[in-house]
Amino acid sequence: MSIGRQIEHHLRYPVAIACAWETFAIMTNKVPTISKLCWKQKILIPVILGGLAVHLLIPHKVDGTSPLVDFDGGQS
After folding, report:
1. What b/e sequence results for 28-58 when a residue is b if at least 16 CB atoms lie within 10 Å of its CB, and e otherwise?
2. What's the count of helices (H) and strands (E) in the chain, helices before strands?
């Protein structure tokens, strides 16, 4: 398994949790949104943005296709 796939595998739960949190916060207005949390706790800004950047930079493979770029150079 390539490094990109390993990172993608490990990030799927934090990304899902962040999306669920944001959806719940917007729909219920009972908990603060991620942006409000970041505004109050500045240390969360690099954590959230860093995780988002890594998530978006990893090429995601869709069944039946091959990624144009992969971290292992296509050796997997």
Report:
1. eeeeeebeeebeeeeeeeeeeeeeeeebeeb
2. 3, 0
d(CA 26, CA 22): 6
Q: What is the pLDDT along the chain (76 residues), one digit of tens a residue?
A: 677 777 777 878 888 898 999 999 999 999 999 999 999 999 999 998 888 888 778 766 655 555 555 555 555 5
Contact 48, 18 (CB under 8 A): yes
Confidence (pTM): 0.63
The dihedral over CA atoms of 24, 29, 31, 35, expressed in degrees to the nearest 10, equals: 80
- DSSP at 64: T
